[in-house]
């Protein structure tokens, strides 16, 4: 069944926007009506049946605008299917699952959303913003580690779950009590 889906993302250097677009394309392939929006541009979610929210991770934190979105829309999100993802790990540890920051965990629990899916990120000298990012982009952390197959596979599962009104099967094995490093 076709549903109206919002894919909202928070990015600093653009990599998470690319992931959100890829998720949106996969959801459309499965017949859903999809808007992909920078989260700061979203004022209301009333029109949507389901929401996918993704944030870039910096210093183990989500972008503030993504956290603000969860806070402002907690009640409405609680009445919808919600999937979360974050994009971050780069370099040799790019396949490491990231835990949600505590603040985000609390909000996710309130909403009833399952833990965020981790997607590897991107860090290059061309897109790096700021002194620290530019320095990091000259190390072994540099590269585009985004796994488009994994992203499409996850989005496919989310698309099916949205159609059926179910939760995503990717998260069923995860424990409720996972704790973030900070
Ligand atoms: C200063 C800095 C701090 C970062 N901290 C983390 C982190 O704590 N965890 C993580 O997984 N990735 C971290 N990253 C990697 C970014 O999350 C990654 O480059 C991501 O793809 C950026 O997304 P964006 O282009 O959408 O902003 C960091 C990158 C920089 C430049």
Automatic annotation (TrEMBL):
<dbReference type="InterPro" id="IPR052200">
    <property type="entry name" value="Protoporphyrinogen_IX_DH"/>
</dbReference>
<dbReference type="Pfam" id="PF12724">
    <property type="entry name" value="Flavodoxin_5"/>
</dbReference>
<dbReference type="InterPro" id="IPR026816">
    <property type="entry name" value="Flavodoxin_dom"/>
</dbReference>
<feature type="domain" description="Flavodoxin-like">
    <location>
        <begin position="5"/>
        <end position="159"/>
    </location>
</feature>
<protein>
    <submittedName>
        <fullName>Flavodoxin domain-containing protein</fullName>
    </submittedName>
</protein>
<dbReference type="InterPro" id="IPR029039">
    <property type="entry name" value="Flavoprotein-like_sf"/>
</dbReference>
<dbReference type="InterPro" id="IPR008254">
    <property type="entry name" value="Flavodoxin/NO_synth"/>
</dbReference>
